[in-house]
Amino acid sequence: MPFITPDNGSLTVFNLFDTRTREDQKTLLDTMQGIIEGANYPGWRSSTLHGGLDQPCAANYIQWRSVDDLQERYEGENFKHNTVPYFTELTTSVHLLKTEVVATHLHPALERIEISPDRDDFTVIVIMGVEPANQARLVELFAKPDPFMEGVEGYRSHSILRGLDGDYVVNYAQWDSRETYEAFHKLPEEQRPADSRAMRAAARPLLTSRSSNTYEVVYARSSAGPSAGER
């Protein structure tokens, strides 16, 4: 199964899809699973499919060897003339975010960050828009270790990914339940440590946008050879 590490040399791609209904979401997930089951593209390392919980949407967390391998896949005739039009019919929006993992944080009880349907993670994906001139500063703020998180009930991990286009940062977080995540999310500012408050205060004016969705992992497959994320 795929693992998230900042030193595996993978290009990480988020394919994010919004759909109109739960029925469209199910059709989309089934179709994407079929594509992943047959994936044998040069440079492809893994795909982990997520189903949206709060909204009818989907996310595919994909690891590639390089940007060139990704471009070869998306410039293929079958993808352009068959896959893209089909997805357009099922979705209201599609976003492709090219990123690299720059930092991972995890609970001391965990040895590494795995994404798998065999786990029961409550997953939150946050997309933070930022001016290119401020991206490095935003990454720096979120990449710093936060010992406070290790003691938060239900916290498992979060990973910070830098958008290669320069104008966004992604936070991929795992929790043990919706309840523990929402309790943390709604925690009054005065109950957070001074360091955490300072980090949040410094990050807030850098954001040009913020969006998030909650997910469960429904399917994952890696290429043959060493486990994805361990190269």
What sort of overall outline do the alpha carbons produce when their principal axes are compared? globular
Which spans of ≥5 residues are poorly predicted at pLDDT below 50? Answer: 225-231
Span from first to last CA? 13 Å
Please count the beta strands (DSSP E, at least 2 residues each): 10
Largest sheet: 8 strands, antiparallel, barrel
The side-by-side strand order for the widest beta sheet comes to: 2-4-3-10-7-9-8-5
Determine Rg (CA atoms, Å): 18 Å
Structural class: alpha+beta
Please tag this protein with its features:
two-stranded antiparallel sheet; alpha+beta; globular; single chain; disordered C terminus; 231 residues; 7 helices
In short:
This protein is α+β, with helices and mostly antiparallel strands and 231 residues long. It has seven helices and ten strands. It has an eight-stranded antiparallel beta barrel, surrounded by five helices.
Describe what you observe in this structure.
With 231 residues, this protein is of the alpha+beta class. Helices cover 31% and strands 38% of the residues. It has 7 helices and 10 strands. It has helices spanning 22-37, 67-74, 77-90, 132-143, 147-150, 178-185, 194-203, and strands at residues 3-4, 11-19, 44-52, 57-64, 91-106, 113-114, 122-130, 155-163, 168-175, 207-222. The strands form 2 sheets. The protein has an 8-stranded antiparallel β-barrel, surrounded by 5 helices. A two-stranded antiparallel ribbon has the order 1-6. The radius of gyration is 18 Å and the shape is globular. The model is unreliable at 225-231 (pLDDT under 50).
